[in-house]
């Protein structure tokens, strides 16, 4: 079962590749992916970070009416962009909290309706940090 979930995450990574934008030479992606749990989000974030080499990735999903957020930043950017702060700001916008390490963080919230706007704000935040 875990292998099937990982394969699904890899397939989703390929489709998300086209949604990323480049800000000051860094691939940035903030997206909602449906049907994934937190573990799959982590796998997906790791997959994208490894693929892009210099990247900021924030993915979120809605599980049982709650928002789950995972953010990842490649090691070369952690002095400028902190994954925990990014996850925390998205979580705050959706009525929650969270945080974590400079390179990987998780958060959650209770307001799925605020998620699109919160994810859109990631791009502005990352541009200001770079």
How is this fold's topology laid out?
Elements: H1 2-16, E1 21-23, E2 26-32, H2 38-52, E3 55-63, E4 66-73, H3 83-93, E5 97-100, E6 104-109, H4 115-129
Parallel strand pairs: 2-3
Antiparallel strand pairs: 1-2, 3-4, 4-6, 5-6
How would you briefly describe this protein structure?
The chain has helices at 2-16, 38-52, 83-93, 115-129, and strands at 21-23, 26-32, 55-63, 66-73, 97-100, 104-109. The chain is of the alpha+beta class and 130 residues long. Strand 2, helix 2 and strand 3 form a beta-alpha-beta unit.
Molecular structure report:
This protein is α+β, with helices and mostly antiparallel strands and 130 residues long. Strands 1-2-3-4-6-5 form a six-stranded mixed beta sheet. β5 and β6 form a beta hairpin. α1 crosses α2 and α3 runs antiparallel to α4. The longest helix is centred in the N-terminal third of the chain and has 15 residues. The relative contact order is 0.17.
SSE succession: HEEHEEHEEH
What's the main sheet like? Answer: 6 strands, mixed
Say what oligomer this is. single chain
**Uncertain segments of ≥5 residues (pLDDT<50)?**
none
**Count the strands?**
6
Measured distance between first and last alpha carbons:
39 Å
Shape: globular
Helix content: 40-55%
Give me the secondary-structure category.
Answer: alpha+beta
Spatial strand sequence of the major β-sheet: 1-2-3-4-6-5
Radius of gyration: 13 Å
Strand content: 25-35%
Task: Give the count of helical stretches.
Answer: 4
The average pLDDT score comes to: 91
């Amino acid at each position: 079962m875990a292998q099937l979930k990982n394969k699904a995450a890899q397939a989703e990574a390929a489709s998300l590749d086209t949604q990323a934008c480049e800000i000051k030479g860094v691939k940035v992606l903030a997206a909602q992916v449906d049907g994934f749990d937190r573990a799959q989000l982590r796998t997906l974030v790791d997959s994208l970070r490894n693929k892009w080499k210099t990247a900021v990735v924030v993915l979120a999903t809605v599980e049982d009416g709650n928002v789950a957020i995972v953010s990842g930043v490649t090691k070369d950017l952690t002095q400028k962009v902190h994954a925990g702060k990014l996850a925390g700001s998205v979580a705050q916008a959706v009525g929650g909290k969270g945080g974590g390490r400079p390179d990987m963080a998780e958060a959650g919230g209770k307001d799925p309706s605020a998620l699109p706007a919160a994810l859109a704000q990631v791009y502005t935040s990352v541009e200001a940090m770079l």
